[in-house]
Specification:
The chain has 309 residues and is α+β, with helices and mostly antiparallel strands. It has three domains: 65 residues; 68 residues, no CATH class; 122 residues, Chitinase A, domain 3 (Roll). 56% of the residues lie in helices and 13% in strands. The radius of gyration is 27 Å and the shape is elongated.
């Protein structure tokens, strides 16, 4: 009878769990890899733990989507290692234990021992007094199709031939992007993106072609100046005219854009603390030394140097 009641309770809970995933954005899956679900909340947690420099690199090269791609590749290797029992090797288990111990030490020093040194008030003051450090530049999520003049290889062609090719692609896209009157704007946007991505896979001549010409999120100063000038003045969801750069002839499609803004304090907080910890490094070391001296004097400890080989 008890087993029956427990089973009924578990069944009753299932709709609630499903409802949580529907109503809580953090519970929505961003990827499922060999049965392992990565939720939006888990991705946010991992991304927020990145160091300042690494976070800035990802922000400039695709943000969380780019990080997720790298993380999934890492998880595949980890899953493979576990599948073969590699995590059970004595030396590997010892390294994993040492890593866990190091993490616990570092976090305790950061969050407890240094709490009175790098205070919330100091972090907030740094944020308020250094607004330029937290400016988020305008970004565009951009795709392109490129035709490259080259003197050798299977795609050998003159500048004129490269230009003619991109003109043909532009004409093909223009003919595809004619829709019946009254077509819903979201349908038009989805089809235009689909047409451009398919054309990029078919015609573009760089590594991004396999991903539908996707260059990810781009900030000013990261790409060719002529390319950027066109991309940042374009409207979302519009195919550009032919843009010439030193690399060749491009068609550009701006998939999305984000205006410039300021990083919220809560988002910047861990980066600020990381920076201020380095500024107060000597004080933190002194605090740790005081703590370990106190703990040692109040602990039972025996050391046997004669057994050290």
């Amino acid at each position: 009878m008890k087993k029956l009641i427990a089973a009924m309770a578990a069944l009753a809970a299932l709709p609630l769990l499903a409802q949580d995933a529907k109503t809580d954005p953090a519970q929505k899956p961003v990827a499922v890899i060999n049965g392992e679900t990565i939720t939006a909340g888990k991705l946010d947690q991992l991304y927020d733990r990145l160091g300042t420099q690494m976070r800035a690199q990802y922000d400039a090269q695709g943000g969380k989507a780019a990080y997720l791609e790298n993380y999934l590749r890492k998880r595949l290797v980890v899953q493979e290692a576990i599948k073969h029992g590699f995590d059970q090797k004595p030396d590997v288990k010892a390294d994993m234990q040492a890593s866990a111990e190091s993490t616990l030490f570092d976090r305790y020093v950061r969050d407890v021992v240094a709490e009175s040194i790098v205070t919330e008030a100091e972090m907030k003051k740094f944020y308020d007094e250094n607004p330029k450090n937290f400016v988020i530049p305008e970004k565009v999520k951009v795709r392109h199709i490129i035709s490259v003049p080259t003197d050798n290889g299977p795609n050998k062609k003159t500048k004129g031939e490269a230009q003619e090719k991109i003109q043909r692609v532009a004409a093909e896209l223009h003919s595809q992007n004619v829709f019946p009157s009254g077509t819903a704007p979201d349908v038009v946007a989805r089809l235009e993106l689909q047409h451009f991505a398919e054309a990029a896979k078919k015609y573009s001549e760089d590594a991004a072609a396999a991903n539908g010409g996707d260059l990810g999120w781009v900030t000013p100063g990261t790409l060719d100046p002529q390319f950027e000038e066109a991309a940042f003045r374009m409207k979302k969801g519009v195919v550009s005219g032919i843009i010439e750069t030193k690399f060749g002839y491009h068609l550009i499609f701006v998939e999305d854009r984000q205006p410039a803004g300021t990083q919220a304090y809560e988002q910047a907080r861990s980066q600020i603390r990381e920076y201020l910890m380095t500024q107060h490094a000597a004080e933190v070391v002194e605090a740790v030394t005081r703590l370990t001296n106190s703990l040692r004097s109040n602990s039972k400890m025996a050391v046997f140097p004669e057994n050290i080989h």
